UniProtKB/TrEMBL annotation:
This is Putative cytoplasmic protein. Pfam families: RelE. It comes from Klebsiella pneumoniae subsp. pneumoniae. It comes from the Bacteria.
Length: 97
């Protein structure tokens, strides 16, 4: 299993106090089904004691891409347009592997 994070996500995670170990543990729990499946290889996972949400892209259990992070207090959820963009990104990323 390989876990990647975008440069933007890495910076945001650091500013939110989210460690790489917590990101790894989140993927482990996602593999156990403790994640919200938004379809098309897009998943939403709670982080940082339920204060933040991460959007994770994958097409298999082999490669995971952390792409977007938001605080629950700032944004309730991603909108449909954003979801469609993440699905397209998941498709593109995973086709190139």
């Amino acid at each position: 299993m390989r876990i990647f994070k975008t440069k933007w996500f890495a910076r945001e995670a650091s500013s939110h106090g989210i460690s790489d170990d917590e990101l790894y543990q989140a993927i482990q729990s996602a593999l156990q089904g403790k994640v919200v499946d938004l379809g098309g290889g897009v998943y939403k996972k709670r982080l940082n004691k339920n204060r933040d949400r991460a959007i994770i892209l994958t097409k298999s259990a082999e490669y995971w891409f952390y792409t977007f992070l938001y605080a629950k207090q700032d944004m309730a959820n991603i909108n449909h347009r954003e979801l469609m963009g993440f699905r397209e990104l998941a498709k593109t990323l995973c086709q190139s592997l």
